[in-house]
Amino acid sequence: MVAAAKKARTKAVAPFSKFKVGAALETARGRVYLGCNIENASYGLTVCAERTAIFKAVSEGERRFKRIAVVADTGRLTAPCGACRQIIWEFCGNCEVIMANLKGKVAVHRMRDLMPEPFDRRQL
After folding, report:
1. Comparing C-alpha atoms, which of 11, 26, 35 is closest to residue 91?
2. Which of 50, 60, 62, 90 does the annotation list as catalytic?
3. Which domains are present in the chain?
């Protein structure tokens, strides 16, 4: 999963921040969808790697997910941002989240640990 996320990272479009991120999402059936961050001059319209991978999978009909890996070139591992945590929670539930960097550092968490009080359909 980390190797796949590293591969996805090479396709990132980050001309402004230079902060390239890759993600790999594994479905319950074992299929892997890749995503990278895609920036534009209006930062609010930028899409993160995690959301790109999830939206690609969902657009192909996938609805059950096992884990997601996120890779960035940082010393400290990069966790999914708040918007991505919300999307991961809603589409992947308490899945495994693998965070890694290009130097081989890896950490594995569950979404429940990254988002202990999620907002979801229970509040609606």
Report:
1. 26
2. 50
3. 1-66 (3.40.140.10)
